[in-house]
Amino acid sequence: MDSFSTMGHLLGEHFNFHKNKPRKGCINMGRMKNVVRRLKYKKCEVRHASSYVHRYHHLLEDVICDIPSALLAELLHEELTFQRQQEQFRSDITGGVLGCVPLPNIENQNEICLIYPRGAALDSLNFHRVVLEFNEGKPNVDMSNTSLVYNLKGTVRQISTVRVDDKGLVGVRSDYSCGTWVIKDGERPRPLEVIQLKEPCTSLNVSPHICGEFVVASESGAAYLWTVGKRPQKFRDEKTNLYFNDKSDWRWCEFSAHPRVMVFADRTGAELTDSRSSDCSHTLFRIGKTAGCKSGERLIVSKYMGEVHPYHHLFTTQFSAYILDERMPSIPALKWEHMMESPPCFARVLPALDSSTSTKILLGAQRAQETVLLNYTGGCEQPCQSDGPLQKLYSPCEGLKHQLLPHKQQEVEKRLGVLAAGLTATQSNGFLTVFQFTEAGDLFSQTLKLHLDTTSSQKDLSAANCDIDLVDLPSKDKPAEEPRKDSIPQETSTVSDEEQLSDSDFEQELRQRMLSQLEVVTNDDQDGSLTSDTEVRISCEPAPVPESSVDIAQNIQARSVRPANPENASEELKLIWKKWLNSLLDLNTRKKRSLKHRRLKTNDIQVKVHRRDQLKEKERFQKLRNGLNDALKNKKLFVHGGSCLPPLDITPVPDTVDPSDWLDDLSQRLSASWAGGWKNWWEDKLGLNRDSKIQALRRKRRQEKRARARYRVALSGSFTSSTSYQDTLSGWSSSTSQYLGSDSESFATSQSAAEDIPLSEPETLPKSPVVEEFPRSEGTACSSQAIESIKPFSHTSERLELDHALPISQNQNQKHLPKKVSTVETQSVLSPLQMLKESLYSQQRQSRQQLQKDYLSSLFGSQEPSQHPVEVHDNSQLSSSGTLRMQSSGYSLAMQRLSQNRSSSQASQPQKKKSRMGF
Amino acid sequence: MDDIEAELGISRSVGNEDFSDSSEDERVARKIRPPILLHSSTAQARAKESGFHESSRLCLKAIRDAMLHHHWQEAAQYLSAYSQTLEDTTVNKQSLACEIIWRLGTEILQHHPNSRLEDFNALYEQMKNSGVKNYAKICLEHSFHLLLNGHIYDAKRQLSVAASWRYGKQSVPQSLDLKLIHAYCGFLDYVIWHMKKSSVSEAEDNSSNREMHSYFRQASVTLQEIIAQPGVWDPFVLSYVDMLEFYNDQEEALKVLQNYAYNKDYPSNPNAHVYLYQFLKRHEAPPAKLISILKVLHHLVPSHELMQEYCYLLVNSVVPGHLEESLPVVFNLLDYPSWKNDLDTWNCLLTVMTVFKRKGLQHLIANEWKQRKDFWLTMHYRAYHGRKDSELNRELLLVKAKVAKLLGEHGKPDHFFKYKLLIIFIFLMF
């Protein structure tokens, strides 16, 4: 600072560092401080573009990857393999997330505290006090108490519970942390301590010997003895697998008979480790070395069976369950092949209540919710002996088979069939209550009755019968069954050397009970809408069994393996089931609604060139759609003019070829052949018909002469007497009508031929620029009919008919007034057509008129040559006939008028030619 | 959690060759599972299977389900249909089907309400013929079944027939089976001998006596041969020793037991030492010898019930150094929660401690206590334990209190504060 101070003093007065007080004559450096402050930070060079970069990133992140694809592929492969493994077997929930601590009996009530996680991520720990009631031999699981909830930060992976002395201790394992709770008699569960680990822990177990001691194993192979209130003490650090390289991260730690000796296990085996000295360990169980081990077998879970036998440990593999005595390592005291399809990772051991009963082991697997019950006796004085065949318990999915609509059935099966996540059991009063927990957060319970007969000898028959009687007590038709029971006692006894109910009645009972009572506790309000937890409880009580067990044994062949539909389920049960189902289906629909996609605005980076056009297009489409809708609604025609579509390209009608312009032989021949007079032309050309022509000419002249002479007579007659006129008129009418008739007839036919097309045209091609109007026809009923069919204005059409009828009769009878008639007629015909036209085409009148002019000219262009011969005739006959002139001019006039109002169609062009032929 | 599935694949291909018999003590009625039942073939394999194989697989599944739910009659029906698989043309599957039918069949028969012994015999005989590979095992199981039904002579006959059976090359598991057959042959000879012995003692009969001796000779030859091989042969050793003792051949018996206990080839077996100790004790061996045996046992199983005797032996021993060894023994014993409510053990500890105190060896007590005080206080001396002891066993409470008093001299006085308060309170009450 000193080195700069001189300069600073010198320059100081010229600089102003105050932000808000600008001084004159100084350089204001108000923002300098900010600039200096920012100098500390590294500037992002593309900051100005960052927002664009971000948007591009979001838009293109699917296509352009941040990570090199080779590396990504490797990682993806790894991840997929891991996911596949997870799908097959999840080692992290080994041990199960369902715990159970028995509470002291008060007034003959069996109370237990169930500990299980809830919530979408299984991250809120529930302590639920459950009362097991055994009224008159009927077990009932009362879950009406509300549970105490602790919300945790991670998913619960394992819950380990032990009752030590007077306290229940609960260890809860999450991925990176472990917590402990203590349940004292008559007090609320309270948390003791939480530890955090650097690596994921795979095992947490509570000491059954010393209150407040836990053993934790982590993925890295470290094992800790954790005493509450003290720092966890690492007693083992195994970097590799114990006996061979299995590449597995799973480690497990359990207590053993000595409070300071722990079982340290991984997939390859288990060792006993003394936590007091670092190098004191010896093998307890080893894959490949323990007798009866198969190759490929792996340790799935181990459990210290302290409450059954102080030195026994349970080890399960994919194939077998072993009981090992830690005093005699590697030699199994007992071995079962558990017959489960997936590896059992939940185990629960229930000690024998007295010497006559057997110890029970429940093994549970994740997939298919398999649960298997094993029995064995002995262990202390007697050698271990398996007791009866193993038994599979019903999974929730099997037990709750209700007939439902297929989609609901699917929903329910999906929900009930999720992976199992825990298993626990408790026994009291001769009942074994098994609780099963699934990953969806559902809790199921089923109760089994223990059979108390010990041996299969004949002496115990009565005892067995007694038991069945007890079960059958509520049955009303019991007396009727009695004799039969006595007659075949052996059947019941052969299977009853185990504690369970004999197979038949047990199974039946289970099935009956499975469906007999089911309680639903829904608590979607607890964790918000995301919680999908509903709690189902199937409590299996010895409900009235309608058939005697012996009877069932006889009928066993006729029965299906699976529980039948709950036809005989109680109404109450049905109601409860319905409630659960509704809540489930409700939740599912709600879940769907809550899904939201992230929206990304890309307006700014989109190219805007065609935007306006697109908008216009859109509007137009909208308009078009509206127009269409309106037309539909009003049952109107929807025409091109009504829409705002761009006008269609009009292909101009090619100019009519005027044969008179082409005087060469070929052209003339062509036009002649077009007109159908090819032969005549040749004859003309070659002069073959010269004679006949001359004759025809002569004949014609003769006729004309004659006609002139008659006309004069008639004319003079008209002046002389009106009566004679009448007579002659009637006499001549036939001859004139011959000529006139041929004319009018030819016209009419041509007209009607032309009409055929225009008739349909207004409907099919409403906006065709070529066909603009209906053809107008004079003196024919057809046209009126045509008009009628198009526009059913009954009034006008009647008039039309009238108008038509009139000229025809006039035509025939009053030859002298054709002009007037024709004008009247056209006007009367035109008036409704005009209306029609106006209603339809008022918008484009202008352009139409233009068109009409075009057609008019074309029409006249084509008609001129046809008129020409007549004129020639007229000219050749100097004594011109007034009527003929009048007629032709009248016709041309009519045509003119007609053409003014109509632009004839293309189709009318042949008519034009035809008419020329007629002329 | 590496590749369980892959390993399963291996095990499936390996099949049941390496299925060795589990411990001999286990009942015959153990549940035997054909390995192919586990993880039945994957979808990929299923795509290729024929209709026959598919239906047999489904049938097997149905049998399994029925058996697991204890529907024996249904399972029997399915099994009768399953016998069709014996006609499978592939050799591998046929032999597998044999084994499956044998195992499932016996299991079902065992629990079927209408099964008779004749059915068993018929099934076993048929299976012996069709499943030649498992002949030895089937014979063994058959004789076990006969034994369970009390037909000892039939069982013996079955075994002797099986023992003389030879078929092709012997595989490793087969030789193990034959060894077991041999062993049980000898054992049944012993059982018959034992029965004869009890009947002979009542009626002196020369012929039956001779018969008994012949059984002894047979049994001793086979048992001796069997026991000479390393393994856990507890019942066989005991029976052999029993016979030798009957014929007053103590030296041979001792030799057998010592070999069984101390031979390094044998797996470590605390029972061997117990048998040796019991034998020597029966024959009034000097305490030094007993102590040496128990010392080994203590090393193997510190929590063994004989440790109290060991402790008393050490305390009463005149050999210098033995007394010092007694203290850890009893302390170790009480480390185990299984002994924590045992009055005798606490009495033993109290005795040893008073002896030590009298002899001025308190530093040893202090040493032991130092190692244990962290968990002994919570394991033995919580207020809860005092309360419970006062309810259940007041004598124990008294002894524990005395021990606590002695121990209290070595630790901080407040260690037992709560416990002492409780004891005072309890004694004031009564």
UniProtKB/TrEMBL annotation, chain A:
Pfam families (alphabetical): TAF1C_beta-prop (PF20641), TAF1C_HB (PF20642)
Record's compositionally biased regions (Acidic residues): 496-505
Biased composition (Polar residues): 743-753, 875-902
SUPFAM superfamilies membership: WD40 repeat-like
A GO term for molecular function: RNA polymerase I core promoter sequence-specific DNA binding
GO CC terms of this entry: fibrillar center
Record region (Disordered): 473-505, 743-783, 860-919
Domain TAF1C helical bundle: 411-722
Protein name, entry field: TATA-box binding protein associated factor, RNA polymerase I subunit C
From TrEMBL, chain B:
InterPro entries on file: SL1/TIF-IB_Component, TAF1A
Origin species: Astyanax mexicanus (Blind cave fish)
Pfam families hit by this protein: TAF1_subA
Identification of the protein by name: TATA-box binding protein associated factor, RNA polymerase I subunit A
Any one cellular-component term (Gene Ontology): RNA polymerase I transcription regulator complex
Biological processes per GO annotation: transcription by RNA polymerase I
Positions of the UniProt region annotated as Disordered: 8-27
PANTHER family on file: TATA BOX-BINDING PROTEIN ASSOCIATED FACTOR RNA POLYMERASE I SUBUNIT A, TATA BOX-BINDING PROTEIN-ASSOCIATED FACTOR RNA POLYMERASE I SUBUNIT A
